[in-house]
Each structure stands twice: as C-alpha cells, then as structure tokens.
Amino acid sequence: MPGPGRGMRNGFLTEEEKANKPKVTKELLLRVFSYLKPYWKQMALVLFCIFISSLFSLYPSIITGRIIDEGLIGRNMEALIRLILLSLTVTLLSNLIGVAESYLNTWIAQHITYDMRNSMYRHLQKMSQSFFTSNNQGDIITRMTSDISGVESIITRTFTNILSNVVTLIVALVAMFQKNWILAVLGIVIVPLFTLPTRMAGKTRWEITNASQACNDEINGILNETLSVSGQLLVKLFGKEDYEYDRYEKLNKKMINLNVKESMAGRWFMVVISTFSSIGPMLLYLVGGILMMKYNQNLSVGDITVMVSLLGRMYGPVNSLLNIQVEWIRSMAMFTRIFDYYDMPVEIESPKNPVEIKNMEGKVRFEHVDFSYDSSRQILKDINFELKAGRSIAIVGPSGSGKSTIVNLIPRLYDVDAGAVYFDDVNVKDIDLKVLRDNIGVVSQETYLFNGSIRDNLLYAKPDATEEEMIDACKQANIWEFISNQEAGLDTMVGNRGLKLSGGEKQRISIARVLLKDPYLLIFDEATSALDSISESLIQEAIDPLIDERTSILIAHRLSTILAADEIIVVKEGQIVERGTHKELVSAGGVYQELYETQFSKALETEKALLNQ
Length: 613
Description:
By secondary structure, the protein is an alpha/beta fold. The protein folds into three domains: 17-177 and 317-347, ABC transporter transmembrane region fold (Up-down Bundle); 181-298, Up-down Bundle (ABC transporter transmembrane region fold), CATH 1.20.1560; 357-438 and 552-613, P-loop containing nucleotide triphosphate hydrolases (Rossmann fold), CATH 3.40.50. It is 65% helix and 9% strand. It has helices at 15-19, 26-34, 40-73, 77-126, 129-134, 137-179, 181-226, 229-237, 241-295, 301-322, 324-342, 403-408, 433-438, 454-459, 467-476, 480-484, 503-517, 533-549, 559-564, 582-588, 591-612; strands spanning 364-371, 380-387, 392-396, 418-423, 426-427, 440-443, 521-525, 551-555, 567-572, 575-580. It has a six-stranded mixed sheet. A four-stranded antiparallel sheet has the order 2-1-4-5, with no helix packed on it. The longest helix is centred in the middle third of the chain and has 55 residues, at 241-295. It starts with 14 loop residues before the first helix and ends with a helix.
C-alpha cells in the first residue's frame, strides 16, 4: 500500500517558485494543449488505457471480499481457487495495459519534445547576434535541454497521474458505496484528515533538507575558494588562515546540527506516516465491526476487508492530488519559460521579395548610418563611406570606437537604427540573408573551429569542395605546409574549439575556410591581434595577396596591413574623424598620427627587431 507521505519531499514550492508563479490564462492552456492536438488519437487511447488499467488494478481489492466470504469462510475450495486465479489474471491484465499505456505516453511525449526542440532550435537560429550577446548562454542551453526535457515529464507523469488518480478515486468510492455507504463516508472523511498531518510533517522535513543543502553549498564554496592553488596563495599572502578556519568551523557545526535535525525529522516523519496509515484501517474495522454485529447482518467480514483495502488504495491518489497545485504551477512555469523564448521577435529576417543582384562585385556603401546596441548609448553616428569593387580600406581607431560594429552591419549581424548599408548598390535589408552572407567572408579575431578534423572545418564553408579546392585554399592561407607535415593531413583532428592547434594555425585555417566560400567581399577583423610575431607574419603573408585580388575591409593594428589598404578610415567615438592615405593622415596631426606614434610605429619597430635577429 502506498504510504500517505509518498512524494512529500518535492510537494512544496520554493520561495522563488512562489514569487514567480505564472499567470495561468485560457490562452496559455490552449497553447499548451495545442501540442497534444496532432497526437489526439494516441492520447485518446492513453485515456482508455488509464481508465481500464485503474479499474483492473482495483478489482483484486474488490474481489478480496469474495475470496474471504465465499472461499475461506464458506470453505469452498473451488470458489477460492477460481477467485484467486481471476484476481491474478486481472492483475496481469492491468499490468500489461499499464505497459501499453506507458509506451504510448512515452511515444507521445518524445514526439512532442522532438517537435518543440526542432521548433526552438530553428527559432534560435533566426535570432540576431544581439540576442546571443545579451542573453546568458547557459540560460539558452537550459531552455533547449532541461526545460523541453521537462515537458516529457509533465506529459508522462503530471497529466497522466492526474487522470489515473482521479479514475482510481472515483472507482474506489463507487465500490465502497456499493458495499456500505456509512463506511464509504467514513473513508472519505478519514483520508484527508490523515494525509494533512503527514503533509505537515513532510513540509518540516523538506524545509530542513533545503537548509541543509544550502549550508552544504556554502561549505563547498569555501573549500573550492580556499583550497585551490590561487585561493590558498591569497589566504597565505593576506594571513587569513585563522579567519577562514573560523568561517569553516561555524558552517561545519551548523551543518552537523542540521543533519541531526534532518535525521530525526525523517524518523518522526516515518512514525507519523506509520501511525496515521494504521489508524484509518483500524477505524474502519471498528465501525465495520459495530455495524456487522449490531445493525447490519448482511455486512460480511469480506466486505469490511474490501473497504479497508480500498481505503489503502486511496492514500496515494489523494496525496498526489493534494500536490496537484505544486505540480501544475511547476508545469505551467516550465511552459511559460519555453514560450517566452518562442515569442521573442526575430529582429533580422530575409525580405519576402528579395532583390536579386546580377554581376555581383562586392561594393559597399554606408549612408548616414546610426547604430546603438541599446537606447542608453549610441555606438555609431552618421557613418558615411564607399568602398568600390576591387579596392580595400583599413578601419582604424582607439579600442571601443566602433570599428567591429561597422563591419558587423554589412552581413546584417545587426541592423542599423538609421541610414542604410548598401551592398552592390542594394540595401542589405532588401537582399536575401543567405545570399548576402554567402558572398561576404569574415575572418574574426576570435577564431572558432568545430571539434572535428581540418577537413570537416573546411567543408563547413563548402560541403561539395574537392580535395584540390581545399588544398588551394590552404596554400593561399599559408597553412598547407603545416597540414601536409601532419600524419593525417586534412584529417588531422583539431580538438574542441581547435585547442590542439596554435592561435596562428587556427587563424590560417579560418582564412582557408573563408576562401572556400569564394566571397566577393573579404573582411579581416583584427585577424592578427592576439598572435605572436611569427604567426602574425605568416598570416600577413596570406592576407596581402588577397587584398589585391578582392574587395576588402581590414580592421588592424599592424602598420603593414594598414599600409596595404587603398584608403584608411579613422574612427573615434563612433564617428569617422579622418580619412586618406597613411602619408596624408600622419602629416595631418590628428587621431591617426597619435595612433601611429603610440601603437603602429612601436609594432613596426618590434617586427623589424625580430626580423634582424
């Protein structure tokens, strides 16, 4: 018989859950159940299985009375064997139907979560770059994994448990009233009265357990901080050994006290459960005995036994239904979190009727462009410049001046607030997103390689690339010599995020990957800023001929890269403050001259010194 306290530990809401209870509306419920609509036939079969299984699961308890009255008390061996076999058969059927119901339930839940994951992933892929820079990555992954996986639990457990428990209670009550209405009413009164005290005991234990867990987390925090290499060094340097010991001792003592309380609360909890579980049947035996001996000669021992058995079967469903509010709130909260992501607007989409560009060249034009990541601070102000086909420009400026933001507007990683960006004389907002991005190659400062082989990472740009095309791209990127010296060649594994390679090797592979796209516009965003001088030189050797061959934009701190550009644009505080050639800008005595004296010339001197060694 399921105990009255079963599942109590999780039967309460935390303070955070209470504070963030979702508002359950008709629209929310319709949206939740809309996911069940495609599987309504399977769901109807599940409901049928639940009803039959619940009915059959109670039948052995009901037939127990006949086993006692007809078989044992009546001393009828044939009836005894027949009824026992019937009881076993019904139990087996109930279990088999339960297996079928469980399979159908799991099948429905898996297909719903399959649909939701696909829909969520597709939606997230459409979100703008600002979504990923402003939202916590862990939170995004949690929505995709834990929250959607939780939907399976809701369908397989919460919804079906509600139905199963309701059916079990109804069938049990009908059977009890058929036997004796007085004992049935007594059972209705007994169950809630005896489950509520155990619920209170369960809540006490739950609160102590939570406090114990919180204290344990604090202790682990101290251990992680003070026993790590860096933490232990800091403790020693500041002479805080005694302070940290006292802090640890106090928490350790608190933990011991909580553990004792939790252990004893658990013991008292089981005493309460055991006591109240026994009182109900005893009361039914007492009242049933009085009725049988004094008032109702037709009431048999078997009938009373059936009533006691059915009472025991009611504890679990009643306890579960008492927790229904908690389960319901958690379920709705989970769906609400998922729907919050679904409802986030897609800020950057392809136009419904995109403009087709014929004879693409890779020209770029900015006209009076303003941009801000949020309303509190404007990043770009009235940006105007034009890059003609086959030409190159270098964008320079102090850190945080908006250089990378400018180039991010061209492939529409973000959209402008005002003004317009043109690609081959067409507003980028009027070009199909895939077409636009397929024809723009970006080599960024932070190179990202997937965990696979060099070949896998190259084919990401062009899945149908031939071996010759990949080798040619690697030669142009000045990385083929390294690859050909590896035992596995193109099939050399790069490790997670390319950790098996150096920064320069990763960067050159990323250049080769971009070249496989064969884009009309190349963008190098600080492609050599975080590398050593040798790697930087190898990448520069790869970049220089590419600048001559294609329309290019370069954001760089390396003077030789800047000098290779046809024109230099100087950006400061989101505005273009100077433009021209290196010679013109150095003699102008402005921002560029300051950058030249503080950054570029020093980098050039360092490079010359290394070359002369």
